[in-house]
Design brief:
The complex is a heterodimer of chains A (376) and B (297). With 376 residues, chain A is an alpha+beta fold. Chain A is 25% helix and 34% strand. The two termini of chain B are 39 Å apart. Classes of the chains: A alpha+beta (376), B mainly alpha (297). The complex binds adenosine-5'-triphosphate and magnesium ion.
């Protein structure tokens, strides 16, 4: 491949710059026909971080992103970039890069001219435009397709052009609305790595919208879970996955089994969840006897065994309904006193004989459970 | 090698299929021939007669075409026609563009009513419209009376019996013809592109100029050629609203044929016009393939 001589600005741009800006959304509310698409949303986004907005369809992710971008005016609330109030700024003056869902490439312009667009608008010099476009296209490894039209590209290539176009003018913040949702699984996985790598190299602040929970978990520094226009919980992926605060989060981000019952004390004074004749040890933490309590347990933290454990771990008896083999893992469904239970274990090395209707034991240490608020 | 072998091994199509194909061929030719005959009898024959007369009346040769170029009277008519057509087309295009843009960006309830409004205008005959404009624009017409009563003018304005009147009448007629192809072309523009441009730093006007306008260009080309071709052939509107003072080509040809009986010159003018229009259509055909170029994104 042909490499153009390194020029100062290109070299400077290629180095990690950590030029990201911090962003803060304060009490943003947006009503559509009296229904809140955003309901008093407040967020602090650290400079250079990769923040993901995650939520089910219609939860207000796009509305929030569009509010940040300036296309949607909030009914109330403020938006600050590095303590500068930009709430009333036109979208074109915010200097945010945006990758729309479906890419929104200009069909009448070639790849190079699409990428050059933000620079032409800013009246940059011809030579600078050429350099920057080359840099951006090399960044997404599309230098060889500069002369093509968008319709001559594959979905993944179009996505990368959209990315290059959003990056080329070194925006303060990059907003991405489900950029990978239209792609097939393999390509999506590839581009996830690429995006993450880009983020690390450029040091920009990324705000990323998705409703794919695995994508959110694997890419983000911080995840914000949105439901009905409200922030339900936010935190690092690990924190959110391990310590969900509500039933919704526990069920939306990964899978969970839910056990509801009343708090009781065993003779040793330890907190138990009791439902009917079954008792389960609760994880350590404050609890009051007689309270209603909801426990969430991840399927992969549950072991499936033929016999009850002897070491005092929690155990629930259930009849095997059926199972799915996924290659690396196997998922079982068992009918228990708490309803249908999901358990998941690595297939390799597993010693269990699976047979429909067979009685088995679901076993987990008490630390594996999380007490969550039942928000329906 | 393997591919060639496979080709040889492929079974011949069964005979019944072949017979079926022959029958289809017959239907095909019948369907082609009937319109062909109609076309020859009603269009191509008369048209070739027109062409023939233009080079045989009053004597053999291109004398009539030479007269078109040489006669100052004819040149003035051509100039008037060109000028009025260009002004009409430009105005119709601008108004049609605004109309189409407005329709497309209305709330859907309004969209329907505006479309009905545009389509309704096709039902009103050109003659009735010309008379309607006369009642509105004449010396003692609605417009002048209103302006006089309001004290805005002291003398009635000359709104008809001149080029202004002809242009008003023609533009009024042509705007829907401009709006419809534009509407079709604008409809195919992805609504997110202008916001995308703004997200990349374009001001609203820049977004329009750099994204929307180029994407609607195929529609603009199609509409302008359609309108230009239509306006070249206007007869009733200039005759009525021009009050005999603004002679356009169609009226002039009619004059040659009906009054002065100069069939040679009339047909030569008609043929020249036909060729001009034909050339425009060639450009139009290119514009349409243009559209396909853009639409496929
Ligand atoms: N322009 C609008 N007019 C009226 N209601 C709207 C508008 N835009 C969004 N809404 C409503 O606001 C709510 C949030 O919409 P939004 O597009 O933000 O959801 P989302 O989280 O992006 O969903 P998805 O994952 O399906 O893209 C929805 O109930 C939607 O119907
Ligand atoms: Mg959305």
């Amino acid at each position: 491949m042909h490499h153009p001589p390194e020029r100062p600005s290109a070299a400077q741009a290629a180095t990690p710059t950590a030029t990201g800006h911090s962003l803060s959304v304060r009490g943003a509310t947006k009503l559509y026909d009296g229904v809140a698409a955003l309901d008093n949303v407040s967020l602090e986004i650290r400079r250079g971080s990769f923040l993901t907005l995650l939520g089910p369809s219609g939860s207000g992710k796009t509305t929030l992103l569009m509010t940040i971008a300036g296309f949607t005016r909030p009914d109330s609330g403020r938006l600050l970039v590095d303590d500068r109030d930009v709430t009333d700024l036109e979208p074109e003056k915010r200097n945010f890069g945006m990758v729309f869902q479906g890419y929104a490439l200009f069909p009448h312009l070639t790849v190079a001219r699409n990428v050059a667009f933000p620079l032409r608008i800013r009246g940059r010099s011809r030579s600078e435009i050429r350099e920057r476009v080359q840099w951006a296209l090399d960044l997404v490894q599309l230098g060889h397709l500069a002369g093509r039209y968008p319709r001559q590209l594959s979905g993944g290539q179009q996505q990368r052009v959209a990315l290059a176009r959003a990056l080329v003018f070194e925006p303060e913040v990059l907003l991405l609305d489900e950029p990978l949702s239209a792609l097939d699984k393999t390509l999506r996985a590839d581009l996830q790595w690429e995006l993450k790598d880009l983020h690390r190299r450029l040091g920009m602040t990324f705000i990323y919208v998705t409703h794919d929970q695995e994508e959110a978990l694997s890419m983000s520094d911080e995840i914000v879970i949105i439901r009905n226009g409200r922030v339900v919980q936010k935190g690092a992926p690990l924190e959110l996955y391990e310590l969900p605060q509500t039933r919704f989060v526990a069920g939306f981000l990964g899978k969970s089994n839910f056990l509801s019952g009343t708090v009781r004390r065993d003779p040793a004074g330890r907190a138990m969840l009791t439902a009917g004749s079954v008792s389960i040890h609760l994880p350590d933490g404050p609890s009051h006897e007689g309270d209603k309590v909801l426990l969430a347990v991840r399927p992969e933290k549950i072991a499936v065994a033929a016999r009850p454990p002897a070491d005092g771990r929690n155990a629930v008896r259930g009849a095997l309904v059926d199972w799915n083999y996924y290659g690396s893992t196997t998922h079982c469904r068992l009918d228990t006193a708490f309803g249908l239970f999901h358990a998941q274990f690595g297939t390799w090395g597993s010693q269990i004989d699976l047979a429909r209707g067979r009685d088995m034991w679901l076993v987990w240490p008490k630390e594996a459970g999380v007490v969550v608020v039942d928000d329906g | 090698m393997a591919v060639a072998g496979e080709t040889v091994a492929a079974p011949a199509p069964p005979r019944t299929r072949l017979l079926g194909a022959e029958r289809v061929n017959l239907v095909y030719w019948a369907l082609v021939l009937v319109p062909l005959v109609v076309l020859v009898v009603f269009y191509i024959y008369p048209l070739s007669r027109v062409l023939l007369i233009s080079v045989t009346e009053p004597r053999l040769g291109f004398g009539n075409y030479v007269r078109i170029v040489e006669s100052t009277g004819v040149r003035r008519v051509i100039w008037t026609t060109t000028w009025i057509c260009l002004v009409t087309s430009t105005l119709s295009l601008v108004l049609g563009y605004l109309l189409a843009y407005a329709i497309l960006h209305m709330r859907s309830g309004w969209q329907t009513w505006m479309m009905v409004g545009v389509l309704l205008s096709f039902w009103v005959s050109i003659l009735i419209r010309a008379f309607a404009w006369i009642t509105l624009l004449q010396t003692r017409g609605l417009v002048n009376n209103f302006l006089l009563d309001a004290g805005l003018i002291s003398q009635p304005l000359a709104l008809i019996r001149n080029e202004l009147g002809v242009i008003i009448g023609m533009v009024h007629y042509m705007v829907p013809y401009a709006a419809l192809p534009l509407l079709a072309s604008m409809r195919s523009i992805d609504a997110r592109l202008v916001p995308a441009a703004r997200g990349l730093g374009a001001r609203p006007l820049q977004g329009f100029l750099y994204v929307y306008l180029p994407l609607s260009l195929p529609g603009i080309i199609a509409a302008s050629i359609l309108v230009l071709i239509f306006s070249l052939g206007f007869f009733v509107t200039p005759a009525l609203l021009g009050g005999g003072r603004v002679i356009m080509l169609a009226e002039y040809i009619a004059l040659q044929v009906n009054e002065t009986l100069a069939w040679g010159l009339g047909t030569a003018l008609a043929s020249s016009m036909l060729i001009t229009v034909f050339l425009m259509l060639v450009v139009l055909a290119r514009a349409v393939s243009f559209r396909r170029l853009f639409g496929a994104a």
